[in-house]
Amino acid sequence: MPSALPLADPAPADGSLPATVRDGAEQRDFGVYLHVPFCRVRCGYCDFNTYTASEIRGVKQSDFADQAIAELELAARVLDDAGFPPRPASTVFFGGGTPTLLPATDLARMLAAVERLFTLAPGAEITTEANPDSIDAAGLQTLTEAGFTRVSIGMQSAVPRVLATLERTHDPANVTRRVAEARAAGLAVSLDLIYGTPGESESDWHASLDAALEQRPDHISAYALIVEEGTKLARQIARGEVPPVDDDLHATMYEAADARLSQAGYSWYEVSNWALATTDGGASRRSRHNRAYWTGQDWWGVGPGAHSHIGGVRFWNVKHPAAYAQRLTAGESPAAGRETLDDETRRIERVLLETRLARGLPASLLEPAGRREVAGLIADGLVDPAAALAGRVVLTLRGRLLADAVVRRLLD
To answer: Which residues form the Radical SAM core domain (predicted)?
Structure first.
């Protein structure tokens, strides 16, 4: 089952937020995340808040769009009551789970509710995740007509036995079909890859990179497989049924990805993300929604277990779809808990997240001890010396491989 919610203060039943959330709001972007928690099968490595039909008896997927719209209406009221200045949504992201298990018309209705309640900024980025087998040409066309601009396809691997280990059920050939159909519908395309699956070889990973690049997507995300405690995969490894993850192989695969993607014209802008270079350096093809998470902007998360951040207040919803529906039916907020971030916590989070960006972290955010560490990080080949002279901490390729260790040194 998905991991537990964090411990913090209880959230008020009406979802109300303190008036402080409006401070500086005009200088921050506002986005909306909609978490669709349904999947056909539970992949053995997955620790996300997702549910298969057998796990949510009595909960109808067909009711979800109306529930999400009810939360959006509550969000609009809460923000208005807090004196939050009206701001259009600059990004909207449908994640999960598998959002495209719902009819495309349901996704369109939810997006229409965002536009009705908040409006959309000119050129807003509107993304949905999709599995290669969970959408078709007609559905993609419906999404385009509704205002979607981008689809993120869960490719994961091009090698059938690697997909089988991950318990991904899609036909690899459908990735090519979906990319072509998305392009025909006028959507930008991102492909998600996973490397380091137990039993995956270097040649398997190269085959997946080549297959992804053959599609020439606008954007590629490549994530190292993390074995989360409590997942089926963790139990299989503990029992010796599959080999453990090899950290050295992870590093080799990451280096291979960066070299191959750079050679093909993609630029890294976050440790696990690359955008196809354009005249603006690829900026127009980066995920603007994810950037909001990495840079501490405002977003409201809709759906079971979804997290939100508004003006330094972080809150999260109850996890189970039945409990989520019950709260909204009773006219209550689905929020389960929240915390107000103090200045030091926000500074630490900026160091944690912005260090991972290609533009780097302003050295001014570091305490004196952290600034003194920069020289040692340069000597160890982890931080770019020219960027450091300009007042920014930018990771080298070796630094990206050891990003967590770099952050610990900057903060200790």
So the answer is: 24-267
